[in-house]
Structures are given as structure tokens and as C-alpha cells.
Amino acid sequence: MSFMSLRKELASPVLALAVALVMGSLLACVDTGEVAEIDEAAIQTALDLYAPRLAKAYSIGDLEALRAYSREHGIEDPLVKEILELHTEATVPPLRERIASALTGHAAEKEIAGMEKRIGDLLVESRVIRPTVKSVQVEDVQIWNYANAFVTTLEVWDLRVYAAGTDQVLSEALDQTNRVKYQMKRERQDKWLVLFRELDTTFE
């Protein structure tokens, strides 16, 4: 066997292996890109559903304020209407139950517990926040180990702070733009659950 023949025999499988590796890498990149787009869309959908429920959880910290608000402005908000229909004055459930009713299925138990503390602290100060979400836009998604994600969003909210049990507005911030950080977990059927939410930056 000549040296050139030997080189051809060796080169052929080596070349085939190299081509296979390159093609595999390219296909992997394509698949990864497609999965990332699907995941980002699913996370955007999850947060679009979560944001109004987060607002609802803050609002139901004080049902008396909601009743005063509904009397003055009419019950146009379906979330307010739902809360007032479910919780009559004679059967007001504990704060934790009211928050869980808004967030269960969208936030983990740890986040619900955190919300209970934040809203409870406001009530101790005789204050209630009634926020309205205007937009939530996912800016960045970092997924690791398939089931976990760090997510950054840009969110626009109207925030009004009321004296608890009244319709007196103590302060308001309209069209407030925030950058928000989330930690999320993939559940069954590619549903994403909020584990943790933290305000990162507020833009004036």
C-alpha cells in the first residue's frame, strides 16, 4: 500500500467524523434557538397572567378599601368584582388565604409567603397599595438545567397608595417603569411558576 493510499483511507473516516460533528453542532444550535424562543414565549405568557394577579393580591389586603373604591367609582374592574362577590363582609378570610386565592398556580409557596409579609407590613402602617399593571415585556431569559430560569422584565405600572379602610389617596405614581428580576421554575406541560420577584430599578 502506497503512502498516498494510506493517507486517503485514514482521511476519509476522519473527514466523515469531522463533518458529522460539525453538522451535529449546527443542528444543536438550531434546536437550542427554537427551544429558547418557545420558552421565552411561554414565560411571557406566564408573566402576563401573573402581573394582574399580583396586583389583585396587593389590593385584597384591605377589603374595606376595595368596597369604598367600588362605591365611589363603580365596580368596573372584574378582579375587584370577583373579590367582593367571593368575600362578603361577614366572611372575610385570613390575609394568607386571600393572597393565595390570587396567586396559587402562578407563584410558589415561598413567594406567596413573601407577599403576605409585604402586604401585612403595609397594613400595620395603615396603608394599602392598589397597583394596575399596564405592560410587562420580557427583556432577557437565562435558562439552566432545563427547569429553572432567571428572567428580566421591563414593566409599567400605575401605583396608588391608600389609607387602609378608606378611599383616601396618600400617594400615587402613574406610568412607573420598573426593571424587575424573576426566578422561575418550569412545571408540568411547560408551565412556568414564579419562585421569586424583586424590583431591580425604577426609572423616573
Question: What can you tell me about this protein's structure?
Answer:
The chain is of the alpha+beta class and 204 residues long. It is built from five helices and four strands. It has helices spanning 3-59, 63-73, 78-86, 95-103, 109-124; strands at residues 127-144, 148-163, 169-186, 192-203. The protein has a four-stranded antiparallel β-sheet, with helices on one face. α4 (95-103) crosses α5. The longest helix is centred in the first third of the chain and has 57 residues, at 3-59. The chain is globular.
Largest sheet: 4 strands, antiparallel
Number of strands: 4
Shape: globular
Order of helices and strands: HHHHHEEEE
Structural class, from helix and strand content? alpha+beta
What is the distance, rounded to the nearest whole angstrom, between the alpha carbons of the first and last residues? 79 Å
Measured on Cα atoms, how large is the radius of gyration? 25 Å
Question: What number is the mean pLDDT?
Answer: 74
Question: Any low-confidence stretches, pLDDT <50, length ≥5?
Answer: 2-11, 14-35
Query: Strand order of the main beta sheet, please?
Result: 1-2-3-4
Count of alpha and pi helical runs: 5
In terms of DSSP E residues, the strand content is 25-35%
DSSP helix fraction = 40-55%
What's the arrangement of secondary structure elements?
Layout: H1 3-59, H2 63-73, H3 78-86, H4 95-103, H5 109-124, E1 127-144, E2 148-163, E3 169-186, E4 192-203
Antiparallel strand pairs: 1-2, 2-3, 3-4
